[in-house]
Write a structure and sequence with these properties.
The complex is a heterodimer.
Chain A lengths: L4 E3 L2 E4 L5 E6 L6 E8 L3 E9 L2 E4 L8 E7 L2 E6 L8 E8 L9 E2 L3 E5 L1
Parallel strand pairs in A: 2-11
Antiparallel strand pairs in A: 1-3, 3-8, 4-5, 4-9, 5-6, 7-8, 9-10, 9-11
Chain B lengths: L4 E3 L2 E5 L4 E6 L6 E7 L5 E8 L4 E4 L2 E6 L4 E6 L8 E8 L6 E3 L3 E6 L1
Parallel strand pairs in B: 2-11
Antiparallel strand pairs in B: 1-3, 3-8, 4-5, 4-9, 6-7, 7-8, 9-10, 9-11
The chains are: A mainly beta, B mainly beta.
């Protein structure tokens, strides 16, 4: 049963520490998205990749966040330094987009708490 | 922003009743999708409707799309307690490069 795998599922860290979240998209999918979910802001699009190339990361605070896809099986989202306002659930989603159709498959999320 | 907005924010009904959720969006879209999220879990795709379609069915789900009003509705018929979840609409730009999600409708189906 193919699924998107995210690690860690939970992370508690102190302000100023570096946090790296990892995502293994479904094999064969060509698009990967990173979202952040909070009660106040809902689901915010942070960045997305098509065929491993970053297409847009305008939703990401550039000074502290970075997203990469070192290979087709791994996407990473890094926060350095982390701040309490970064506390949220971070979702990775992948999809096979062909033409103008496609659906997203979400991982279970990484719940981040920054103290 | 193309973010959709769902209405109502919360909905509480009895099992067996129908649940209707609405989504409004701001600009032209390629397609609109509905997703479901159970508490503490990731989102799960329910149904996709293209901009040239007006209505689509999938099991107990019925989705309508009115591009002139920039709105969509999701109807769940004969609801079950297991339908308790948050429901989100997502809109895709024409080049399908971005997916924006609305704020969601929290549905509670009482047994």
């Amino acid at each position: 049963d193919a699924r998107v795998t995210q690690t860690p599922r939970h992370k508690v860290t102190e302000m100023g520490q570096e946090v790296t979240m990892r995502c293994q998209p479904i094999l064969g999918h060509n698009t990967v998205f990173w979202y952040r979910q909070t009660m106040m802001q809902g689901l915010e699009l942070l960045a997305y990749f098509r065929n491993r190339a970053p297409l847009d990361d305008s939703g990401m605070p550039k000074d502290r966040f970075s997203a990469e896809m070192p290979d087709a099986t791994l996407a990473t989202l890094k926060i350095q330094p982390s701040e309490p306002r970064d506390s949220a659930v971070y979702f990775c989603a992948s999809g096979l987009f062909e033409g103008n159709t496609g659906e997203l498959f979400f991982g279970e999320g990484s719940r981040l708490t920054v103290l | 922003s193309q973010q959709g907005e769902e209405d109502p924010q919360a909905l509480s009904i009895q099992e067996g009743e129908n649940a209707t959720m609405n989504c409004s969006y701001k600009t032209s879209i390629n397609n609109l999708q509905w997703y479901r999220q159970n508490s503490g879990r990731g989102l799960v795709h329910l149904i996709l409707i293209r901009s040239n379609e007006r209505e689509k069915h999938s099991g107990r789900l019925r989705v309508t799309l009115d591009t002139s009003k920039k709105s969509s509705s999701l109807l769940i018929t004969a609801s079950r307690a297991a339908d308790t979840a948050s429901y989100f609409c997502a809109t895709a730009e024409y080049n399908f490069n971005k997916f924006y999600f609305g704020s969601g409708t929290k549905l509670n189906v009482k047994p």
